[in-house]
Design a protein that fits this description.
Elements (H helix, E strand, L loop, with lengths): L29 H9 L3 E6 L2 E10 L5 E9 L4 H21 L15 H10 L2 E7 L1 H11 L10 E3 L2 E3 L9 H13 E2 L9 E6 L4 E7 L2 E6 L7 H12 L4 E2 L2
Antiparallel strand pairs: 1-2, 2-3, 3-4, 4-7, 5-6, 8-9, 8-11, 9-10
């Protein structure tokens, strides 16, 4: 598909709501990244404290690669479930103590079973659909190869999970995925057209625009401040049909 290269000055990153479903700081499996680069149909799953599933559906008529990503708590892991029980008991008991009703003692019978939590976790899973261009897939592949996350891994001790996170220590892959997710990814529940998403390609950047009830949010791939004049220029390009409609 031939792309139009647009011209506008001063395009940069402006914060917009991300729909990144997969836990930040956890690298996806290398098999998924390799398949994503070539848009090879496949499903890859990894398991830890969460279960992340990556399904590459294949190329769309416009050349973009359609990907489904989901993430949910891994209550199948006994350590995760035991940690959930411990936290639930602690918070519930604290609430009872605050109400000065110390006679209420929390037991295992008051907590959902592991089987119930497994089903609950699947029902509450985070999901998103992404439609990556060839250049976006190559960029994700190259960013992934750096393996440069500086955040420490999560620790599991006595069934309790603890972790620290600093956005300034995110990996190149996470940073790029968060940028892209604001434009080329969408929650399946929003697939009814409530949000419109566009990609506007320029000589020095690509701007991803989300439109909701006539309002626009912008997320671009370079690093300069964006002004209202530039925003208006991008909106004009969208109205003129010069940007690719993704959703």
């Amino acid at each position: 598909m031939r792309k139009k290269i647009l011209t506008a000055a001063g395009l940069t990153l402006i914060i917009s709501t991300a729909v990144y479903a997969v836990t930040v700081g956890v690298e996806p499996p290398a098999q998924y990244i390799n398949n994503l680069k070539t848009c090879t149909k496949s499903t890859v799953k990894d398991s830890g404290n969460t279960i992340n599933e990556y399904t590459i559906k294949g190329k769309l008529p416009n050349g973009r690669c359609e990907v489904y990503i989901s993430s949910y708590t891994n209550f199948e892991d006994p350590k995760v479930y035991e940690g959930f029980k411990t936290i639930t008991k602690s918070f519930t008991q604290m609430a009872n103590n605050m109400e000065k009703d110390k006679s209420k003692q929390i037991t295992d019978a008051d907590i959902p079973t592991q089987a119930q939590m497994i089903e609950q976790g699947k029902k509450e899973k985070d999901e998103m659909i992404c439609k990556f261009s060839e250049n976006e897939r190559k960029a994700l592949y190259n960013a992934y190869q750096k393996h440069d996350s500086k955040n420490p891994p999560a620790k599991v001790e006595n069934g309790n999970i603890s972790f620290s996170f600093d956005s300034s220590k995110m990996s190149s892959y996470d940073n790029l995925m968060l940028t892209l997710s604001g434009g080329v990814c969408q929650n399946p529940n929003d697939a009814n057209g409530k949000y419109k998403k566009y990609a506007c390609e320029y000589a020095d950047t690509t701007c991803y625009v989300t439109e909701f009830k006539g309002m626009h949010s912008f997320k671009c791939t370079n690093d300069r401040d964006i002004d209202f004049k530039t925003m208006n220029t991008i909106e004009k390009h969208i109205n003129q049909g010069m940007c690719e409609r993704i959703f």
